[in-house]
Description:
Elements: E1 13-19, H1 21-25, H2 29-39, E2 42-49, H3 53-59, H4 69-76, E3 81-88, H5 91-99, H6 112-116, E4 125-127, H7 131-141
Amino acid sequence: MPCLSAIPVSIMETTYIMVKPDGVQRGLVGEIIGRFERKGLQLVALKQVIPTEEIARTHYAVHSERPFFPGLMKFITSGPVVCMAWQGKDSISVARLLIGPTNGREAAPGTIRGDFGMDMGFNMIHGSDAVDTANFELNLWFPEGLNTWTQDSQTWVYE
């Protein structure tokens, strides 16, 4: 029988997820959101933007010395992205399992990249890889903050 009390916010984790321009152009935003919702994560922020070069450079600064960086900047600023914050127990690792490895040809069927990806560069989605990274990315893309609300179905997701 499910516990009818709310999950304490202190044990929840929030991760940053971005559907990249190729995922938006391919019409996969709804499918991707649905996978996170069906898993039981809670959407606490959502917006569509065309990234400026400044925000893109800040987001991908860790790759700035890599040879693929100029192409990455051109790609990520080429069209709209969908920025999301998802909350839940271990949301970072749960999201990364849903997403799958970077190369879609190597990703398992059932993952987002495994079901829809064929290339390393056009891999449709970004997900934070650690708590510190998630906090940095959430603050970068959502300077206005995240929503706080109680999703009634959460009492049926967690014990």
